[in-house]
């Protein structure tokens, strides 16, 4: 029986036991510290490259925040008011909390069939996500709130559940679609915080943004590794995996330069984008047509 938290992480002998200990930790700060401790032990060769326990399919969650389906989440506004900025930071903290689990699940669930560097990559990502969580929770506390004070999105673990038997699908969806979507929207969020005079939060989000480019790159690297092993063209494989269940995650506007830095080139999402943006372009033309008529 593996304990959770930092004690569980310290008692683990294998990488799988250590990842499982992180996933079983509910308390957010404890999870973040356990994650950092496991990543450190792995870097210092303190854990065996052995996959002797399974990862929990549905990691336990703390009592707070209350998890709500997306359609019951309160509207959070556009970072103009302090309330909407708190709601935004809280939503981001929740994403990072779940991202810790996504990284350690990826290493512990799929690592056995992969080279050692695969675990190196995902534990590095997991350590980053833990730091992101701590930075956001600290910022929330400085603003008189904390992680858990507001409801949070219940659906973030869904992508993990739907791809728990298929590493290629997991990589296509989690880093290469969900995290890549983060790259598309974060510059605008940073600008909103700056416009509202909240430079501290803007700096935290900028740091997260830089790290997330690396996370998408780790995902793309291993996705292409899997495709090469299976003799499949990566862009086509990605499109077919995304079109099946996750088509709505991939939508413009895209941050092409951040995506390109992460190795996620237009040949991946260009065709999917063209389908969506041709619809957008025609509706924009209609709007512009209306404007010019009225002008
Ligand atoms: Fe993150
Ligand atoms: Fe990330």
Descriptive report:
43% of the residues are buried. Helix content is 68%, strand content 1%. The chain has a two-stranded parallel ribbon with strand order 1-2. The protein has one domain (74-283): Ferritin (Up-down Bundle). The protein has eleven helices and two strands. By secondary structure, it is mainly α. The chain has helices at residues 5-11, 15-24, 28-43, 82-110, 116-142, 158-162, 167-195, 199-230, 234-245, 256-261, 266-294; strands spanning 67-68, 152-153. The longest helix is centred in the C-terminal third of the chain and has 32 residues, at 199-230. Residues 278-295 have low confidence and may be disordered. One fe (ii) ion (FE2) is lined by residues 99, 125, 129, 179, 212, 215.
**Outline:** globular
Q: Helical element count?
A: 11
* Sheet having the most strands: 2 strands, parallel
Work out the number of β strands: 2
CATH architecture heading: Up-down Bundle
Helix content range: 55-70%
In sequence order, what are the helices and strands, one letter per element? HHHEHHEHHHHHH
Ligand list: fe (ii) ion
Organism: Sphingomonas oryzagri
Pfam family, one: DUF455
Region (Disordered): 51-80
Protein name: Ferritin-like domain-containing protein
Task: Give the structure's gist in a few sentences.
This protein is mainly α and 295 residues long.
Q: What order do the helices and strands come in, and which of them pair?
A:
Layout: H1 5-11, H2 15-24, H3 28-43, E1 67-68, H4 82-110, H5 116-142, E2 152-153, H6 158-162, H7 167-195, H8 199-230, H9 234-245, H10 256-261, H11 266-294
Parallel strand pairs: 1-2
Helix pairs in contact: 1-2, 1-3, 2-3, 2-4, 3-5, 4-5, 4-7, 5-8, 7-8, 9-11
The protein binds fe (ii) ion (2 copies).
């Amino acid at each position: 029986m593996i304990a959770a938290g930092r004690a569980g992480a310290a008692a683990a002998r294998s990488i799988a036991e250590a990842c499982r200990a992180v996933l079983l930790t509910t308390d957010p700060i404890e999870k973040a510290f356990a994650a950092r401790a496991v990543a450190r032990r792995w870097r210092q060769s303190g854990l065996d490259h052995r996959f002797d326990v399974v990862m929990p399919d549905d990691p336990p969650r703390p009592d707070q925040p209350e998890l709500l389906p997306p359609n019951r989440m309160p509207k959070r506004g556009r970072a103009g008011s302090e309330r909407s900025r708190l709601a935004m930071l809280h939503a981001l903290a929740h994403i990072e909390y779940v991202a810790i689990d996504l990284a350690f699940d990826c290493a512990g669930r799929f690592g056995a069939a992969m080279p050692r560097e695969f675990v190196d990559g995902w534990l590095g990502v997991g350590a980053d996500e833990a730091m992101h969580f701590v930075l956001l929770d600290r910022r929330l506390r400085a603003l008189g709130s904390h992680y858990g004070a507001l409801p949070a999105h219940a659906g973030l673990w869904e992508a993990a559940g739907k791809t728990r038997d298929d590493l290629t699908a997991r990589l296509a969806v989690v880093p290469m679609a969900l995290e890549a979507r983060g790259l598309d929207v974060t510059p605008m969020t940073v600008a909103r915080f700056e416009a509202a005079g909240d430079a501290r939060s803007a700096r935290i989000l900028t740091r997260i943004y830089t790290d997330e480019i690396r996370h998408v790159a780790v995902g793309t690297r291993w996705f292409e590794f899997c495709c090469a092993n299976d003799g499949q063209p990566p862009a086509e494989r990605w499109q077919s995996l995304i079109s099946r269940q996750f088509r709505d995650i991939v939508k413009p506007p895209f941050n092409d330069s951040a995506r390109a830095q992460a190795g996620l080139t237009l040949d991946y999402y260009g065709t999917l984008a063209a389908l969506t943006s041709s619809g957008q372009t025609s509706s924009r033309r209609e709007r512009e047509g209306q404007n010019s008529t009225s002008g």
